[in-house]
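Lecture notes, structural biology module. Today: joint structure prediction for complexes of two components.
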Amino acid sequence: MSTVATKDKGPGPDELTFEAPKAEELAALLVSKDRPPRPGALSASLTFGWRAMLKIKHVPEQLFDVTAFPIMMVLMYAYLFGGALAGSVSEYIQFLLPGILTMSIVMITMYTGVAVNTDIAKGVFDRFRTLPIWRPAPMVGYLLGDVIRYLIASAVMLAVGMAIGYRPHGGVLGVLAGVALLMVFSFAFSWIWTMFGLLLRTEKSVMGVSMMVIFPLTFLSNVFVDPRTMPGWLQAFVNNSPVTHVATAVRELMAGNWPAADIAWSLGWSAVLLAAFGTVTMRLYNRK
Amino acid sequence: MSGHPGPELAIETAGLVKVFGDNRAVDGVDLSVPAGTVYGVLGPNGAGKTTAVKMLATLLRPDGGAAHVFGKDVVREADAVRGRVSLTGQYASVDEDLTGTENLVLLGRLLGHSKAAARTRSAQLLEAFGLAEAAERQIKNYSGGMRRRIDIAASILNTPDLLFLDEPTTGLDPRSRNQVWDIVRAVVAQGTTVLLTTQYLDEADHLASRIAVIDHGKVIAEGTKGELKASVGSGSVHLRLRDPAQRPEAERVLRGALNVAVQLDQDPVALTATVNGHASDLGAAEQAARALSALAASGITVDNFALGQPSLDEVFLALTDRNARSAPGDGAPHNASTTGVPA
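The predicted structure, tokenised, for the full assembly:
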């Protein structure tokens, strides 16, 4: 680094902007006291969703968990269990893909808690909380942004699955219906994480607690195998787990069937999760 | 609230309390801030300034007492309060991952501006704050001074009626600090009330018309700048002696000549006398001159001499010292190195 070279580069980034604020300009800007009407609930939530998109643009690495991780999940479990459980990978993927899709998306939802927690630590939350807007908007915005991430993950997993032999007999409509149901459930389920994000003090503790919840909940389901060979007490848990209902509904929808009971269970669980954890989240958010 | 004969109050608190565990962070604060002024809240780290501001800005619920902003209760009518205030916190309350423009457009949209209006307003503010060049850079690449400016810009997207500035210049170099001061003056000139917290006496001195001094969650002094200064002395005479052995003699001479508090500094040759221009017939400079001649007459060699404004330390020592004296057993900190005025 010679002095000549730095001179040629002109003023550094900081010097460039080191001029004083312009008082007259500022005064002119402050004169207008009229305020536009407050944005509605949907508009505010969508604006926060846009913020999530901007964050993806600036920190694209955060898409790693919705691209590389799902590919790994599909390939790992298909080749690990395929031969033993169903005779071949192409047989097993037919059963596995909708389940592993459900499992992966539900697992990815836990990053929401980490994002909420990081934001709080940085102080930007204080500004959002002093704005005269619909109170849940920042949270709903996160989750709307996350739905985009889940859609990316779903597309990636379906592509990988189809490459190794998955054939959804429900066609495009069946696949879309399955993904849509999964999105609804994930949106509702994510409120558990916004709660932990607000409740716990550090990013690490959010991760730790999330793992404790997510592993039993996703693995103790019918994602990998039919529960009929499990001991009775485990069957009781697995058959009533929301993840099992969602996985079954997604599997059947993509196969071209109409699993009315499982769809109803999935939507019912979604409503319960949203009502319970959404309420707690907003209480914590207002009290924080 | 009953009608006030005086000017409209931007902030009014009565017995405001916030407790964290067994720490009474804010312990019965009464404030009356007239609209259209800069009100300084002065205090050291941990005095409860930020906690008080957070309660007024609806971020924290008070555990006791009441607080009204423009007559609206900060708990029951929080939404109405939020519509009229903005907060610039101690740490940049903007999104570090986004650019300057994106941050301002985001907030503009959340305040109800159309996309086009939000863009226009952002560009104007960035220009006026000298940030146009940095508009498309992420905030995490901004310098400390630039962060404060974008933070304040974000607070005046809609001109607020009340602006909270929580230690806006802590950690800034003198030049950036002056820029922030210029901005504050411009904002106030347009009729916005500013509540400014600071640990620097000269900042409160430059900007505020009234000042409350807070320590351990309590207001220990309140008044106009003149009143506050008069109460703690108008200045300090700092002396450095050639011979440390002469210090006890010098202390005696100074107390005799000025009849004021004399403080023995850490440095064995240094001592400080607080002089009070208002309490005596003589001004601070005359008192200092008298002190010097008294020392010379006693054969004490002074190597170095300075007459300064009271520092925040001295203000606190003076105020907390008096506090402890007027309310014995109150537990207010008492500095052992201060030798008080003979009562």
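Point to remember: Residues 69-120+147-287 of chain A form one domain.
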